[in-house]
Amino acid sequence: xxxxxxxxxxxxxxxxxxxxxxxxxxxxxxxxxxxxxxxxxxxxxxxxxxxxxxxxxxxxxxxxxxxxxxxxxxxxxxxxxxxxxxxxxxxxxxxxxxxxxxxxxxxxxxxxxxxxxxxxxx
Length: 122
Known about the structure:
Layout: H1 2-7, H2 15-27, H3 32-39, H4 43-55, E1 59-63, E2 71-75, H5 77-99, H6 103-121
Antiparallel strand pairs: 1-2
């Protein structure tokens, strides 16, 4: 399902770049280390991704207000628009596919989704 949903993407961004943008949207302005922890990667691994997002105007890098050695990354309006467009496209595709399922099939998916969510959070 993840692969199929990725096929609906029309952005030039990689899945990793979109994931990081989504993380910044979810957690708000954060240090690169906090974003890396959220994405479960090492801080050096996220540096290139964040640099690309900032260079493309999708994210904003600002000095940390309390720690001059740190920076905060936040979502730029352009990044928010890209995420919204991608999510709308995927949601539309998924909505059409779900509408083709029976009521029982949708109920089964709801139950499975709760279990998968619980597993993902562990």
